[in-house]
């Protein structure tokens, strides 16, 4: 549940920043940018969780 809240904050923050950066102020580009950044952060979290090693796995 903690990751879902963090992902919502990432999406909302990226949407607001993209909405302010793009000169057209369109929602479509902002949603596309925010969703791509969300997929990137989720993928990085997934890869990081797969690469963690502990003594119990050996």
Explain what this protein looks like in three dimensions.
This protein is mainly α and 58 residues long. The protein is built from two helices and no strands. The longest helix has 24 residues, at 27-50. The chain starts with a helix and ends in an 8-residue tail after the last helix.
Secondary structure layout:
Blueprint: H1 2-21, H2 27-50
Give, in order, the helices and strands. Answer: HH
Using only C-alpha atoms, the radius of gyration works out to 15 Å
Strand content: under 5%
- The tally of helices reads 2
- Pairing-aware structural class of the strands and helices? mainly alpha
How confident overall, as mean pLDDT?
85
Beta strands, count: 0
User: Regions with pLDDT < 50 over 5+ consecutive residues?
Assistant: none
**Helicity, in percent?**
over 70%
- Shape category: elongated
Distance between the termini: 28 Å
Biggest β-sheet strands, sense, barrel: none
Keywords: Membrane, Transmembrane, Transmembrane helix
Protein name: YrhK-like protein
Organism: Paenibacillus pabuli
